[in-house]
Write a structure and sequence with these properties.
The structure holds 2 protein chains of 2 kinds.
Chain A (H helix, E strand, L loop, with lengths): L6 E4 L3 H11 L3 E4 L5 H6 L7 E4 L9 E3 L3 E5 L4 H6 L1 H6 L1 H6 L6 H4 L4 H7 L5 H8 L3 E6 L2 E6 H4 E3 L2 E2 L6 E8 L5 E9 L6 E12 L2 E10 L6 E2 L1 H6 L8 H11 L10 H20 L1
Parallel strand pairs in A: 1-3, 2-3
Antiparallel strand pairs in A: 4-5, 5-10, 6-7, 6-10, 8-9, 11-12, 12-13, 13-14
Chain B lengths: L3 E8 L2 E8 L4 H8 L18 E4 L2 E4 L12 E3 L1 H6 L4 H9 L9 H14 L5 H7 L11 H11 L2
Parallel strand pairs in B: 1-5
Antiparallel strand pairs in B: 1-2, 3-4, 3-5
Chain lengths: 282, 155
């Protein structure tokens, strides 16, 4: 399978990217790693006239640690996040999720920002960002703006990005010292698309859960924050996962895919809730 | 706008300059333009791993990388890594363990396995399987391949 013909420009600055996006509009696509984009082009699911390669732009692949937050450049690769001691220490959820993303050769190239901007409903990073209440920094010709991860994902492959805008950085608040995290996922084979996955973060004090965040992937067209299940666990022991699992039905009705019915997905979401809470309480 | 681009890539230690179409994959550039047919094009959407090559020392998918993206980079293929002797212990172990049947996946398997040998020499059998999850073999059932890699890691 070969991609349809397109032209290619290696951008030298964000300003040039904004100009090119203004000039070419919808017929241009950003190449930010390309591990989903090039596969989609090979299968001719998309046929842009121009690829704007942003992978060599400087200043967009750093992980910067400040007191209460970590800023991750959009071009940081999955592998860089997987290996980073700072991420492991301050945002362990991301280190826990990274090995679930595709395979080593793809994690070496695919990027954090690319995955977020694509907004695949089975992707790991969008759910992690929703669980951690991240802020997305978006650049455009007229300046930058910030938007919460929880408001960014609008639908299937649909985000709050406007024409001409580029996701440049993600700011993630570091949870307090009593917080723990867990990432669990079910897939047919290691590295395959998730059937259902769950990013979980909570404050755990002597086995008691508070401020729980449960963000599911693979159950809806966007990451699903299970607010009813989160509330049901407030002040409970981590072992009382049945309360959260029961409340899940009020949070979402999973969408069936080619392989799993809606009922199967709901059952798997309950199973993952139990596993994640047990990992948080351990 | 011009749809072909001039690139200069260091392939297996040799600097090569060519004009390539923007849409040409690195794997097709290696195989068709340079005659380096050791790397294979399998699924062509990033699933099977037969096209695994190294760019600037890290393993990548040759079908999910454009040739034009390799401009200024160092690319190592099965030919170069075999000639240099880097893969010799794995090649010997694959041979001894009968870890190839049709051989289509073998170049990708060897390069992916060498990544583990170089960077995670203490990997367990389970970790070997995880690392190879992106490389499909339709013949061997993987047991012999994992055995061979385990032999090299155990040394």
């Amino acid at each position: 399978m070969k991609a349809p013909a397109f032209d290619y420009i290696r951008a030298r600055s964000l300003a040039e990217v904004f100009d090119l996006l203004e000039e070419h509009g919808d017929s241009a696509k950003l190449l930010a790693g390309g591990q989903s984009l090039l596969a989609a082009l090979n299968m001719r699911l998309s046929s842009p006239k121009l690829l704007i390669d942003i992978t060599r732009l400087s200043g967009l692949s750093e992980i910067t640690v400040r007191d209460s937050a970590v800023t991750i450049g959009a071009l940081t690769t999955h592998a860089a996040l997987e290996r980073s001691p700072e991420i492991r220490q301050r945002l362990p959820l991301l280190a826990q999720a990274a090995p679930h993303i595709a395979h080593a050769a793809i994690r070496n190239v695919g990027t954090f920002g690319g995955s977020l901007a694509l907004a695949d409903p089975a992707a790991e990073w969008p759910a992690c960002c929703v669980a951690l209440d991240a802020q997305f920094v978006i650049g455009g010709k007229t300046g930058t703006r910030k938007i919460a991860a929880r408001a960014f994902f609008k639908g299937l492959y649909e985000t709050a990005l406007r024409p001409g805008e580029v996701l440049t950085h993600v700011e993630i608040p570091v949870p307090g010292p009593d917080y723990r995290s867990a990432f669990v996922e079910l897939a047919q084979r290691r590295g395959d698309y998730a059937i259902v996955g769950l990013a979980a973060v909570a404050k755990v004090a002597r086995g008691t859960i508070s401020d729980l965040r449960l963000a599911f992937l693979g159950v809806a067209s966007t990451p699903a924050l299970a607010r009813k299940a989160m509330a049901a666990m407030e002040g409970r022991r981590a072992g009382d996962a049945a309360a959260a699992a029961k409340a899940l039905e009020q949070d979402f009705s999973p969408v069936a895919d080619l392989y799993s019915s809606a009922a199967t997905k709901m059952q798997l979401a309950r199973v993952l809730t139990g596993r994640a809470l047990s990992a948080l309480g351990a | 706008m011009d749809r072909t681009h001039e690139i200069t890539v260091t392939i297996n230690g040799v600097k090569v300059t060519r004009r390539v179409p923007a849409r040409q994959h690195l794997i097709d550039f290696l195989r068709e333009d340079l005659g380096l047919t050791g790397s294979h094009a399998g699924c062509e959407h990033g699933v099977c791993g037969a096209c695994t090559v190294r760019v600037d020392g890290t393993i990548v998918r040759g079908c999910l990388t454009l040739a034009v993206q390799a401009d200024g980079r160092r690319v190592d293929t099965i030919e170069g890594l075999s000639d240099s002797g880097e893969l010799a212990p794995l090649q010997e172990a694959f041979h001894r363990r009968n870890a190839a049947q049709c051989g289509y996946c073998t170049p990708g398997m060897l390069i992916a396995a060498q990544d583990l040998v170089a960077n995670h020499p203490g990997a367990t059998r389970e970790q070997i399987r995880e690392h190879l999850s992106g490389n499909y073999c339709r013949c061997t059932g993987y047991q012999a391949i994992v055995d061979a890699i385990e032999d090299v890691l155990g040394k």
